[in-house]
Automatic annotation (TrEMBL):
This is SWIM-type domain-containing protein. Residues 210-244 are annotated as: Disordered. The chain crosses the membrane at residues 270-288. Residues 139-171 form the SWIM-type domain.
Length: 291
């Protein structure tokens, strides 16, 4: 499934789906029932310049606000505002010290593409068009349009291994082909607007209307939930035994389907026995005296 999800072009995705079908018709039908644009890179659009398949970013945001989320709405929003204000100010200072034009994590990603490009052989077809070959695999790269038929170049805004191979063949600078959204200038532009500092609520402007009071406080039953509410069908981290299709094994009788608490061989404990004996004796005495 992950192999199919990671395919960046249609033909590769279809091939992987056929392999899934050969293993399990049910799995194939399940996957085909989900709109591909939601789970496979082969249908991702080019505008967002994002090929992320997982929602780890939401998890990071949730872990940052998990303490604040328990607070009343205004306090919670104030906490988030202060968190962002601090983060933006720190990032603004950090980027000032950064000397290169391309951002550090992007450089690491680009290096991976450069490393992978060594297996590809470029053949020039014209000034900017190349056929890039590896065995029976071939892709067409258009450097002028910044496109590759594997779609990764357009989707990520970073040259794919085929594009890197073509750029090297054209003796051009790879950095020219990195999308402008990954540059220091773009990062600076992102963090330039300042989140303004704010006075405490005692200094806020008072209105002529009565204060809005919080609703009566009710403590709901059970422990409050802290984890982010997951979407339908979303796997939790560390799936439970029942989700994995595994059955519990009893440590008393070693049979499947129950644990030692629900074991039919379980003996009642001593205190329960004593209570039962006292109860029976009392009942017997009551009956005896009434007769
Ligand atoms: Zn490519």
């Amino acid at each position: 499934m992950w192999r199919a999800a990671k395919c960046t072009y249609l033909a590769a995705w279809e091939k992987e789906l056929m392999e899934i079908r050969a293993i399990s018709e049910g799995a194939y039908r399940h996957l085909i029932g989900i709109r591909p644009k939601y789970w496979t890179k082969s249908r991702f659009e080019f505008y967002p310049k994002c090929d992320a398949l997982v929602n780890n970013m939401c998890e990071s945001f949730n872990s940052a606000i998990v303490e604040s989320r328990e607070k009343p709405i205004l306090t919670m929003l104030e906490d988030i505002r202060v968190y962002l204000m601090k983060r933006w100010a720190e990032n603004r200072v950090l980027i000032e010290k950064y000397k290169d034009d391309i951002l550090p994590r992007i450089k690491l990603k680009l290096q991976k593409e450069i490393d992978a490009s060594r297996w590809w052989f470029p053949v020039a077809a014209g000034i900017s068009k190349f056929e890039v070959i590896r065995g029976r695999d071939k892709f067409v790269v258009d450097l002028l349009k910044k496109e590759c038929t594997c779609r990764k170049f357009q989707m990520t805004g970073l040259p794919c291994p085929h594009a890197v191979s073509a750029i090297n063949c054209a003796k051009d600078d790879i950095r020219k082909y990195v999308s402008s959204c990954y540059t220091k200038a773009a990062y600076v532009a992102c963090y330039t607007p300042m989140i303004n500092p704010c006075n405490g609520h005692t200094m806020w402007e008072r209105t002529t209307h009565p204060d809005v009071m919080p609703p009566p406080h009710r403590v709901p039953i059970g422990r409050p939930k802290k984890k982010r509410a997951r979407g339908e069908g979303e796997e939790p981290q560390g799936p439970s035994t029942s989700r994995l299709g595994l059955q519990q094994k009893c440590s008393r009788c070693l049979k499947l389907g129950h644990n030692k608490r629900g074991c039919p061989l379980r003996r009642p404990n001593v205190s329960t026995c004593l209570v039962n004996i006292v109860l029976y004796i009392t009942l017997f005495l009551m009956l005896f005296t009434s007769l």
